[in-house]
Design a protein that fits this description.
The chain is mostly helical and 312 residues long. Helix content is 85%, strand content 0%. The termini are far apart.
């Protein structure tokens, strides 16, 4: 038995060795790709100073409060709110429950800031065509000087009220400190105000133009074309979603009423029995709640799709 096992093992080893040699180039490529991914991941982790959640909160506070004093006041307010809510909760609940309530309490101001940010992002995302068109025009007029182009774009005051404010803050930071790291951070905050792909591309263009004077005319024109196409797609999507909204808001309640009338006049169910079976019977009332919940979820989803940011 041992001899047979040894022979079988030898055959499998020879077969495995032959397979490894035959597919060695592919195996070597996979290992190299994996090693490269690990290096890139390690480099990315090294460059990222803050975890994603903390970085998001930092950027959120940065775009919500332009003055340093306002930022400090907000942080002090959050600390006091945490301490007060913890001590009030600790009197009635356990240590962990009090901590949970405290963190939940300090999260509410952040939710308000997020809501305001998303509202601004929605409005700012629809200013892309006007903003980039004017920026490209000023970029060409001012001999491809990105600083002057941004300055003149702000002064032009086109149909981009929110974006004009974002550009103003960006220009002030660029002129205050234009070293590569500070420039990258300023552009990052500018992009955060939009949260869109086209803003990331625009931010990269501005960074390259400010850093080493790269000509970004072609890139800006390409962005304008992509945004115009996105606008056309959004108009078509609004038309389709408009039909879905009307069907959801009017047809679903109408169908429910028609079903009730059909049960009364054609199935000869008395209104009293119908009311009892629908609202006083546990199964009927549960079915009514499920249908109502799905109806409201459908409306929320349609509103969410209709209020999405314009992106490419």
């Amino acid at each position: 038995m041992k001899l047979e096992f040894s022979i079988d093992l030898l055959i499998y080893m020879v077969f495995a060795s032959g397979a490894i040699l035959f597919f060695w180039n592919e195996i070597d490529t996979i290992f190299k790709r994996h090693a490269l991914k690990r290096k890139l991941k390690a480099k990315s982790e090294k460059e990222t100073k803050l975890p994603k959640l903390l970085e998001y909160c930092h950027n959120l506070i940065d775009v919500s409060f332009l003055k340093e004093s306002s930022k400090r006041f907000f942080l002090v307010f959050e600390c006091l709110l945490f301490i007060i809510s913890y001590f009030l909760s600790y009197r009635n609940y356990s240590y962990l429950t009090a901590l949970f309530i405290s963190f939940l309490t300090i999260a509410f101001p952040f939710f308000i800031l997020i809501s305001k940010l998303e509202n601004k992002r929605y409005k700012s995302s629809r200013e892309g065509v006007s903003l980039i068109s004017e920026l490209h025009r000023q970029y060409c007029i001012n001999n491809k000087n990105i600083y002057e182009a941004i300055d003149q774009t702000i002064k032009a005051g086109g149909n981009y009220a929110n974006s004009g404010k974002h550009l103003y803050v960006l220009l002030m930071k660029m002129r205050t400190d234009n070293n590569p790291e500070s420039l990258k951070e300023s552009v990052k905050i500018f992009v955060f105000n939009y949260g869109t792909n086209w803003a990331r591309m625009l931010g990269q263009c501005i960074y390259l133009a400010a850093y080493d004077g790269t000509d970004i005319s072609a890139a800006l024109l390409d962005l304008i074309d992509q945004l115009k196409e996105a606008c056309n797609l959004e108009e078509r999507r609004k038309m389709l979603n408009g039909e879905a909204s009307r069907m959801t808001l009017f047809l679903v309640p109408l169908m429910y009423i028609v079903c009730m009338l059909t049960a009364v006049y054609y199935l000869h169910i008395s209104p009293h029995s119908l009311f009892v079976n629908q609202f006083l019977n546990p199964s009927g009332f549960l079915l009514f709640l499920i249908n109502t919940f799905l109806f409201l979820v459908n409306i929320l989803l349609i509103n969410f799709v209709n209020s999405g940011r314009l992106d490419i």
